[in-house]
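[audit] Reproducing an earlier prediction to check determinism. Same input, same settings, fresh worker. If the tokens differ from the archived copy the diff job will pick it up downstream; this log only records the rerun itself.
[audit] input (191 residues):
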Amino acid sequence: MVAVVGVIPVRSFREGMSRLAPRLTAQRRAEIGEKVADRVLETTRSAGLHPLVVTRDEEVELWATARGVDHVGDPGTGLDDAATSGVEWALSRESSWLVLHADLPLVAIADLEQLLATIGLGRPVIAPSADGGTTAISSVGRFRFGFGPGSFRRHLGRLDDPVIVVRNGLLHDLDTTVDLEAALIKVSYLG
């Protein structure tokens, strides 16, 4: 058994953040994607979770390995199945799990500690993004994910008596150019 597993799906640095293409070159999107994923990974580790990267991209696998982080294959059929792969890995080790997005530029240790406190009580927990998505979610055992636009409401309906955690570091993901502009104002590491 390992600590709570922080499941972090990472599709690809090169192909990620495609909605930012009007504002950034592919190379700059890859650089920002990796920097933000580094922050999420280190914050996850610092908060006491066991990070697990879910990917099918060789570059991301090498990135995870270089950081001493376990990784598991992504079936390549979407975020729902990637999250499920990570959850299955955690459950095979008799561990609790927390699925956390890799595009949270403001995530802080205190954000994750609040999620962990709920998990420690055996309660499901969910964190919404500002646009109605889901940036972090945990349940007991297996869970049927439904990521995409409006996923917070979908997930909320599938959880039994969840705790909703609303924190700045979990609200703000990088889906649009507006999200990126706001992040560039608030953090220097993306510069």
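[audit] rerun output stored. Observation attached for the diff report: The domain at 5-186 is CATH 3.90.550.10 (Spore Coat Polysaccharide Biosynthesis Protein SpsA; Chain A).
[audit] end
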